[in-house]
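Example 9 (inverse folding). The structure is encoded as follows.
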């Protein structure tokens, strides 16, 4: 069982209105924290929450990811279990990048996370997360067998507003033969280590932590209620991140984090992004970003690349701490 430290000012009465410019240390993205804009009227029927599981069938005969439709997916490279499988990894039928490209090439895989069509993210238990991370490990190692691959991105789009085109629970892995400029650091030291030390010192943005991981709302959160999970060990190597011991730790942590998110925000559309590196050097450090998709990127953001966040990270962390405390107490009772 993962022991958590949730001792950081559990209840802040009311935070003052905030209007200031910040920069996310790890990406360099600028964000305006404008909490007064959370009160503006929004006339929209756009759906932020996911359909309830009662609205979705356990099995959809039209879904290519459901059991019985395995032949509708491209080549399978990995599976946990046999007929009653738990996780499958297949090539993406509509890849972002192809293996035999001339100027750019790479791999695009889909990780089908569950047999059931209607399983929700907050319902994933530790065993489910362990199966998923084991599938990630296999796929990442397979991608890097190609020496031309320089970069890999693991991500999950959850819900329509999170970019998911298929409801069935799945995530994706893309490997590239180049490194995106946004992932190229000009720093002389590890920015993740610096941010961890800063957040632990300030405390108010830390949601919870233990000896292995820290979960927090980053100072420069450019998405409302953004959560960052950073490994306290300075490493980003596949061997370290996906060794059996760390997979168990991480699986336990993720089950708690998404239970916390559900109790705070409901079953909300979101993105999960995992940052690992091919080369484990002094600048490489494993972390995860979770982006709830509550707000909208509009004209100002698209034209200036300056983001607007209507919920301060301090307020978000306080809200999540209360939810984490509730989840922790419930688990202690069971």
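The amino acid assigned to each position is listed next.
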């Amino acid at each position: 069982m993962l022991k958590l430290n949730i001792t950081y000012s559990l209840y802040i009465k009311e935070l003052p209105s905030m209007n200031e410019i910040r920069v996310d240390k790890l990406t360099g993205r600028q964000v305006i924290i404008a909490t007064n804009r959370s009160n503006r009227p929004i006339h929209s029927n756009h759906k932020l929450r996911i359909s309830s599981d009662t609205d979705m069938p356990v099995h959809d005969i039209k879904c290519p990811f459901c059991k019985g439709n395995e032949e509708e997916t491209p080549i399978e490279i990995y599976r946990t279990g046999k007929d009653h499988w738990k996780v499958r990894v297949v090539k993406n039928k509509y890849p972002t990048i192809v293996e035999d490209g001339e100027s750019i090439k790479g791999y695009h895989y889909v990780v089908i996370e569950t047999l059931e069509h209607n399983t929700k993210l907050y319902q994933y238990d530790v065993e489910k997360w362990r199966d998923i991370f084991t599938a990630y490990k296999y796929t990442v190692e397979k991608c890097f067998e190609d020496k031309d691959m320089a970069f890999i991105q693991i991500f999950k789009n959850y819900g329509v507003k999170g970019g998911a085109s298929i409801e069935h629970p799945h995530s994706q892995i893309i490997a590239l033969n180049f490194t995106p400029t946004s992932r190229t650091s000009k720093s002389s030291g590890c920015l993740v280590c610096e941010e961890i030390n800063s957040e632990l010192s300030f405390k108010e943005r830390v949601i919870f932590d233990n000896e292995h991981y820290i979960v927090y709302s980053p100072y420069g959160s450019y998405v409302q209620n953004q959560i960052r999970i950073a490994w306290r060990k300075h490493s980003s190597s596949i061997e370290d991140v996906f060794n059996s011991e760390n997979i168990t730790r991480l699986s336990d942590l993720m089950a708690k984090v998404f239970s916390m998110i559900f109790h705070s925000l409901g079953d909300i559309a979101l993105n999960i992004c995992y940052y690992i590196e091919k080369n484990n050097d002094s600048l490489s450090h494993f972390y995860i970003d979770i982006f709830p998709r509550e707000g909208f990127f509009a004209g100002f953001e698209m034209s200036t690349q300056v983001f607007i966040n209507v919920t301060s990270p301090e307020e978000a962390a306080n809200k999540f701490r209360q939810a984490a405390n509730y989840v922790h107490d419930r688990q202690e009772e069971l």
